[in-house]
Amino acid sequence: MSNEVEEIKSKIEIVDFIQKYVPLKKAGINYAGLCPFHNEKSPSFMVNPERQSFKCFGCDEGGDVFNFVMKIEGLEFKEALKMLAEQTGVVLKPFGRDGRDAINRVSTDGVSKTRLYELNSFIARAWHQILLKHPSAQKARDYLARRHLTDQTIQEWQIGFAPPQEITRKLLNSKKFTYNEQTSAGNPSRLENRVVFPISDLIGKVVGFTGRIISENQDGPKYWNTPETTIFHKGKTIFGLDKAKREIRQKDQIILVEGQMDVIMLHQADFKFAVATSGTALSADHIKLLKRFSSNISVAFDQDAAGQKAAWRALEIAFAEDVVPEIIVTTAGQDPADMVTNDLEGWKKAFENRKSFIEWIIDQSIQDFGVVDGAAKKQVATKVLPWITRIINPVEKSHWIAELTSRIHVSEDSILEMIKHIPQESAPKTKTVTDKQTENNYDHSPEVLILGLLSRFPKLVHDDLKKYSQYFSPEYRISFDELLAWDQKKTFDQYLKNVSPQAHKTISEAHLLSSEQYASFTLEEAQAEVIILISRLKQLAREDLKTNYANKIAEAERLGQLNKVKELMNEFQNVILQK
Asked: Could you tell me the domains of the chain?
């Protein structure tokens, strides 16, 4: 396989490839752009054509074209290998213990995945053309018009119309798809007389379909989904994720809804980060897949009994995967598709006013039980606390404990005492938070970048910067302090001769890095960048502080030291306000 990987890499010019995703500008020997993997205002994402590699000095992502594709497309290595092989015309040899490529593996009936992809792709295109042009699809076109789908949306989602079974079979037979292949694909002809929504995998290949009846008087179930096949695994497939993934990365936000029409109408209304499951309930694998793109998930399920049941199940699964979702409360009797069609401003307001699930359940519990007496307060706490105790991050947990005590007007001691009596199965053991788990782990790159910019633009060096020394890690603080002592009458080379060996090495490397990354920067641009980097550095210091207190609180909880937990919570709140 290594030879195939190298052959693929030899056929790809990484600058041209990445420019399909990220606008790049020449910056010395490199090309620079805004990183697609985290939000930033100044370019810290560099592509080196000589090494055929990329590196972000903001979030520390880096590697070759395979690393880039795996990260930006959310693919596993084998999926990225298959994708790039197809783009470059490289033929992959069989691999694996059974001698078969996992992507082209045959099913038990001898049908290859490649043939199933080809079949689905063909019939999706055929059904789409029938919807657009054939007289028999007029009722389907009328249905979509009533649902306010635009022509552009219909084309973008390749929505189709499945004619009677015999016509679909004739179409498939005309392209030499055998009966065995059609059966292995889930018998697409069974979707007859339905509006059809293709379901795609992460890289946009059609893996299955959902068919919806046009008339409520029509025979058969309202929805018919492709059953599980070699290429369609419902528990691991997210509808719309192939189209939403880039917007999700950009906004760091996901809207999770129940239905495919909800997804499509939200995208049409420019909420292009909406997704749904495909013909099955939400699973842990779904959440794990979504977390590859963002952990900020907002749930907008229908307000009917079935929708609320699905929402509670989704919340259970999300909590188990260390995701505390937000709730978008839709208008009673309307699903998200109805809301964006009939009351777009109402939907926008509902989205803007979304609440953390814990806040939502506190509101619901107070609404149900009130807080007029001790019995009512106990009912509220009994309803809410099992959810709070399931939060893995101790700092977040402590925040919601404080919020609950404030809302129902009781002491934290009483809440902490109740927590002791919650069964362990309702409150999984809290994980210790490490620096590897904190968000925005920049691997000290803000410090290196600041040192580099100051070394190249000595006019930016002044005493006012000394107050930021406290935010530098010991590894870089010495170099920062020595750089601030630079006698401006001396050149950079002269200055380096008089610093400590550690500072000499660190500042020299930072200077070289800055010469590449900020090659075209003016003094004014460098000054603005230093301000941004200092702000980032302060934020990282706050995150380190949170992590430190989180671990202390977790340890005190483990030992049952309730007074210590309360003391640490108060201390944390006071310290964080000063930062």
From this structure: 2-88 (3.90.580.10), 113-232 (3.90.980.10), 237-353 (3.40.1360.10)
